[in-house]
Amino acid sequence: MKANCWMGRNTVEVREVPDPVILNSRDAIVRVTSTSICGSDLHLYDGYMPTMEKGDILGHEFMGEVVEVGSKVSTLKVGDRVVVPFPIACGNCTSCEHGLYSLCENSNPNAGLAEKFMGHTPSGVFGYSHMLGGYPGGQAQYARVPFADVGPIKIEDDLPDEKVLFLSDILPTGWMGAEMCDIKPGDTIAVWGAGPVGQFAVASAYLMGAERVICIDRFPYRLRTAERAGAEPLNYQEVDVLDALRDITAGRGPDACIDAVGMEAHHPVPAMYAYDRAKQAARLETERPYALREAILACRNGGIVSVIGVYGGLIDKFPMGSLMNRSLTLRGGQCHVQRYLKPLLKKIRKDEIDPSFVISHRMALEDAPRGYEMFKNKMDDCNKIVLTP
Ligand SMILES: [Zn+2]
Ligand SMILES: [Zn+2]
Fold it and tell me: 3-state class of 306 per DSSP?
């Protein structure tokens, strides 16, 4: 089959690789019909996530048709259409039983590696480094889906791929980012990052009752898409974000702040950017956490900072004094996608949300290398790319 493979920094290549086969009785093989490139794939592309190896198949957002099931998968049959969540979860461990699927205790065969970096291991993830299991991803014609009796959700034939594909990651991730804010009617929420996850966080915050949602970015086209979801745009290259948020909230600050940016944030002050960029390049810190620092400083006293942007390791100059003295709550997590699939599918079916509004480009899988380059460099107003194998 053909698959999009990580071949080193800034290099992906669509290569001919062996077809996946059933390895465990709870596996299924899915013929991928749609897959997408995620902002978090860029952290791999840019070489900032450790433990990638040449030839690793990328992709954690995919859906398709079941073509084979293991003997213990009774919930799926050949021919079913499914969306596959990005965290791989067994459904039986303590974390899974508590709905914390991205913390599954049984799905990362390289747990020891992750423990060295993070203390304990999260779940395995498709196409996202050996530290997170070394699982081949879904930017391919076929994918092996472990614990197929737990993760994939069946999709009725009348819903097109583009409306449901993002259940695999970015829609539930944006939703969970807003959910972690404990939004009450009248709340003002600020979202750093007007990429697709930020755009979904904006839409979710309104669905949860927020009064105002402000979205912060520097690309006008991304801010315009967030505006379509209802956001008030704030371009950090034009205004001082902390001042602007103070003005908007009568001096108090937003009730909750969502970091939908993560480890490769950009900073408008060249000296600040150069400082973290250099330390990151020298591996003295692994992140450029401007969005997170700003979200903490902006948040109102006693408010919540919700982190859904991806971080890999250690950060510098963390404003702990602000967090502690002002009684802030810091929350974060890889999305526990499995627990949001049914409720969000229902919202899509009822037309409360149509996630396809984030799509800007459609390409064949073979064009993945061009897609990564376009998405990374924000060429042609690239917001979200769907690949068809
Ligand atoms: Zn993703
Ligand atoms: Zn589990």
Answer: strand
The Å distance, Cα 102 to ligand 2 centre, comes to 8
Contact 208, 189 (CB under 8 A): no
Cα 99 to middle of ligand 2, angstroms: 9
Nearest ligand to the C-alpha atom of residue 96:
2
| Integer Cα distance of 243 and 377 in angstroms | 29
CA 37, distance to chain mean position in Å, is 10
Q: Which of 200, 241, 189 is nearest to 217 (CA)?
A: 241
Contact between residue 122 and residue 96 where contact means Cβ atoms under 8 Å apart = no
Bridge-based pairing of strands 256-259 and 28-37 is: unpaired
CA of 351 to the centre of ligand 1 (A): 23
Give this prediction's pTM.
Answer: 0.95
What's the CA dihedral at 152, 164, 374, 224 to 10 degrees?
Answer: -140
Distance from residue 88's CA to the centre of ligand 1 (Å): 13
Q: Which two tokens stand for residue 65?
A: 């048709």
pLDDT for 275 equals 75
**What does the pLDDT read at residue 271?**
67
For the chain, how long is the longest CA-to-CA vector?
61
E strands, 178-220, in order: 188-192, 212-217
Distance from residue 179's CA to the centre of ligand 1 (Å): 18
Q: Are 210 and 188 in contact (CB under 8 A)?
A: yes
Residue 158 CB contacts under 8 Å (≥ 6 apart), including other chains:
none
- What percent of the chain is helix, strand and coil (3-state, nearest 5)? 35, 20, 45
Ligand 1 centroid to Cα of residue 126, in Å, is 10
Task: Note the pLDDT of residue 286.
Answer: 67
Mean pLDDT per 10-residue segment, the chain (389 residues): 97 98 98 97 90 97 98 98 98 98 98 92 97 97 98 97 98 98 98 97 97 97 94 96 97 98 78 74 74 96 96 86 97 98 98 96 98 97 97
CA of 120 to the centre of ligand 2 (A): 14
Distance between Cα 85 and ligand 2 center (Å): 14
Alpha-carbon span 266 to 289, nearest angstrom: 9
Distance separating alpha carbons of residues 156 and 55, to the nearest angstrom: 34
Is the backbone of residue 333 left (phi > 0), alpha (psi -120 to 50) or beta?
left
Which residues are registered as beta bridge partners of 69? 28
